[in-house]
Design a protein that fits this description.
This protein is α/β, with parallel strands linked by helices. It is built from eight helices and nine strands. Bound molecules: fe (ii) ion (FE2).
Amino acid sequence: MFFFNKKKPILKDLIPDNHIDFHSHLLFGLDDGAKTFEDTLALVKAMQGFGIKEMITTPHVMNHVWNNTHDIITSKRDEVNTLFKQHGVDFTIKAAAEYLMDDYFLTLIHTEPLLVLKDNYVLVEMSYINAPLQLYDIIFELQVAGYKPVLAHPERYNFLHNKFEEYSRLKNAGCLFQINMLSTVGYYGEFVARAAEQLLKKGMIDFASSDIHHEKHVASFDGKVLFKDIKPLEEAIANTLFFKE
Ligand SMILES: [Fe+2]
């Protein structure tokens, strides 16, 4: 009699089988995600256990903090795939990047091919403290160069919570929005969960991904989704299949 069952769903139960995830930090030693190959392997296995069978992992590209380049990321991806084979793991990981939108990124747009999620889709993020002054110039330049920006975790930018119209401005400027699934269980706190719920309710979220860095993130997929209406979340999860090959 599930009709009467008003229990909140467990996040990991909302992930369909053979799903894809396009935001995570699984390549060991490149950023604040996996530190060793064992970490990489444990995170990949945990994600597979949730039903995620394709992963486009996205190391940070953040000048002076995580100095990852196109070549560093693709070499590490190849190294990890070789290690998978050597360990008898039948899995191939893909890699793109999570680019911080700053002056350095503005230069990068014109100097090297960006790592894309698929076709011309590029995952971008902002600082959690404030937006860059040249935010809309960056978004414009990125599109002039032929890319489509996918803004990572819009719900996590606290400085936007009290000016919701800014979210509309970002969407109108051409950004697609990717929610972090863990925002829905309150992992990043109440305000982020509330912003996530509002964005979903307004139909502004295009995709959902894990942004998994470590074991604590994995464990939090056992959390309950806090929202009354989970339909927009389910739709965002389903839309994410767009990135599957
Ligand atoms: Fe991330």
